[in-house]
Amino acid sequence: MTEKHNEGLLEEKRFFFPPTEFSAKAIIQNPNIHELGADRATFWNEQGRRLDWFKPWNTVLEWNPPFAKWYVGGKLNAAYNCLDRHLAGPRRNKAALIFEGELGDRRVLTYQDLYREVSQFANVLKSLDVEKGDRVTIYMPLIPETVIAMLACARIGAVHCVVFGGFSAEALKDRIQNSLSKVVVTTDGSYRRGNSIPLKANVDLALPVTCINNCVESVIVVKRTGQPVDMLEGRDVWYHEVMKNVSIVCPAEPMDAEDMLFILYTSGTTGKPKGVVHTVGGYMVGVSTTHEWVFDLKEEDVYWCTADVGWITGHSYLVYGPLSNGATILMYEGAPDFPEKDRYWKIIEDYRVTILYTAPTAIRTFMKWGESYPLGRDLSSLRLLGSVGEPINPEAWMWYNKFIGGEHCPIVDTWWQTETGMIMMTPVPGITPLKPGSCTIPFPGVHIEIVDHAGNPVPKGEGGYLVVREPWPAMLKTVYGDDKRYQDTYWSEIADVYFTGDEAKWDEDGYFWVVGRVDDVINVSGHRIGTAEVEGALVDHLLVAEAACVGRTHEVKGQAVFAFVSLKEGIEIYDGLIAELKAHVVQKIGALARPDDIFLTAELPKTRSGKIMRRLLKDIAEGRTIGDTTTLADAEVINFLKKNIDAQK
Ligand code: 6R9
């Protein structure tokens, strides 16, 4: 990337233009591509044709705010679009999935291979009475069988609910209960830095309670680590056993465009995680279009998205987007520092990866480890880099550009959410000039604005709430089983628009700069953690009376959880209590929610009406000047906190 820097301008105003060699070969050549999206219905109608439909749609969009129906009347199947349609031509024997395990084991599945395994596993699900519309929970590490299980569900019209393998048994239980899944697919264990983590044992812990509801009838276990597991007669079966002698013929179920494809749970401001519902038609059109354009996908690319399939990025840009486009995807099971800190760069060198899509927190970790690791490997195959999950700070952007991209790869900073399903703001590589730290402008056919609380757009140069003005194809359709929560959470905060929960500003050039969440969601290493969830986990501890959590800035993770806890009357503090509280959060939610800091206090700062003043807690956690305290019931509380915080750390 070549830099054009006008002296005297702010750092933010630097433009980076794509190298001419990149632009010359880019799939999008039309510099006015964004104008094509101005007529949204026509644009998305056109994009719908990129998929194979069993029956064409009658109406591209029916909008009954806030409920949208896309490609109404159309019938299609997501797995068919990811597999069957590639088999007729030269892609039949192309690598669909290149897998590298943490221990160095390798597997390559061609499109034909993947098609065969998916069809067989779809037949296995059918034999376990899974029918169209039934839910299947997938609690797996990043291995090919996870993708196979997802596509097998899609093939027969079952709804998958992937639960990230880092979630605890209790978090898994909540999700199984909410979705009322009939089947759980898991592994004996998963590898992490050479250790094996027991996934099947967590499923066992999660299930006794749900059995009261009698929802889970079968558990299918993939053998991965070989660690011992308990198999419950009549409920648990081994994947390798049930896959024996199963027919490879399993016709793809013609699904209504608005039938459910999957539920994915995500954290919000209040209560338990929400089941975000995505449906087949609009979602597939959205991820397929964005994947091709944003990553400038060519037939010969080796595309690597480092996200776990337990997150939306794994769903949209590891599985459905790339496979619908017939791409070769790389999948790596393990940690970036196992056995050495250059594992990612070695993988890029070994497989000649051309496109890398990762997260700012990873980039900051690599920066900390130092550039000698990437410099020691041949990364010349790379031609495009992507970033997702949180704002990327300009320093990390510059490092990514220099040491990974060799200053010749455009960086696509992509802003989107579990709820949006697809990338919403991004450069179109080869066309859009870049600015480090900005996700640039909305994707064609997407209408994003920054507004004030009344919903009025703010002028350029100012900031406000980030909203989506009009429906888009991959938008969530509801919160599973709770239309009201969907309406209240997303469409009521600001009248007539979808509220993202993010704050952003736009500059004189109309470029967007996402600041971060304005709700009670903490973004830890790109993972959404609800403060209410962590507080709930802390209060669940026998000795805890009250808890309040905030996010504080963290050099590598972006944000870290900072918890303020008051103990029940008469409880003495003892050595190891803080560690015990942290472990309790891990047990309730998972390691990703472990607070970095826990501060014990007799009181939490509250207003006279008893509301905890998080704003002040945040000031304390960030170590900055404390804001207005006039509404506090007892100003002494805050002075105490301020004085004692460093002493306790
Ligand atoms: C895809 C994904 C969504 C939240 C979102 C925002 C933050 C994601 C970003 C970004 C700045 C980017 N976020 N991408 N912030 N720049 N490029 O991460 O989905 O897990 O639902 O998180 O992540 O705050 O609201 P999800």
Give a structural overview.
Helix content is 31%, strand content 24%. With 649 residues, the protein is an alpha/beta fold. Strand 18, helix 11 and strand 19 form a beta-alpha-beta unit. The longest helix is centred in the first third of the chain and has 17 residues. About 1% of the residues have low confidence. The structure holds ligand 6R9. Ligand 6R9 binds next to helix 11, strand 22, strand 26 and strand 27.
Helix residue percentage: 25-40%
User: How far do the termini sit from each other?
Assistant: 43 Å
Radius of gyration: 24 Å
If helices are DSSP runs of H or I spanning 4 or more residues, what is the number of helices? 20
Mean pLDDT level: 94
Structural class: alpha/beta
Major beta sheet summary: 8 strands, mixed
- Tell me the overall shape: globular
Share in β-strands: 15-25%
Number of strands: 32
Sequence stretches where pLDDT stays below 50 over 5 or more residues: 4-10
Name every ligand kind in the structure: ligand 6R9
Strand order of the largest sheet: 14-13-10-8-9-16-17-25
List its salient traits:
649 residues, alpha/beta, eight-stranded mixed β-sheet, seven-stranded mixed β-sheet, binds ligand 6R9
Task: Please describe the topology of this protein.
Blueprint: E1 2-4, E2 15-17, H1 20-25, H2 33-36, H3 40-48, E3 59-64, E4 67-72, E5 75-76, H4 78-82, E6 95-100, E7 106-110, H5 111-127, E8 135-139, H6 144-156, E9 159-162, H7 169-179, E10 183-187, E11 189-192, E12 195-198, H8 199-213, E13 218-222, E14 236-238, H9 239-242, E15 255-256, E16 260-266, E17 274-279, H10 280-294, E18 302-305, H11 312-324, E19 328-332, H12 343-351, E20 355-358, H13 360-369, H14 372-375, E21 384-388, H15 394-404, E22 411-414, E23 448-451, E24 463-468, E25 478-479, H16 483-491, E26 498-506, E27 512-517, E28 521-524, E29 527-530, H17 531-539, E30 544-554, E31 558-567, H18 577-588, E32 597-600, H19 614-622, H20 635-648
Parallel strand pairs: 6-19, 8-9, 8-10, 9-16, 10-13, 13-14, 18-19, 18-20, 20-21, 21-22, 31-32
Antiparallel strand pairs: 1-2, 3-4, 5-15, 6-7, 11-12, 16-17, 17-25, 23-24, 24-26, 26-27, 28-29, 30-31
The site of ligand 6R9 has 24 residues, from helix 11, strand 22, strand 26 and strand 27.
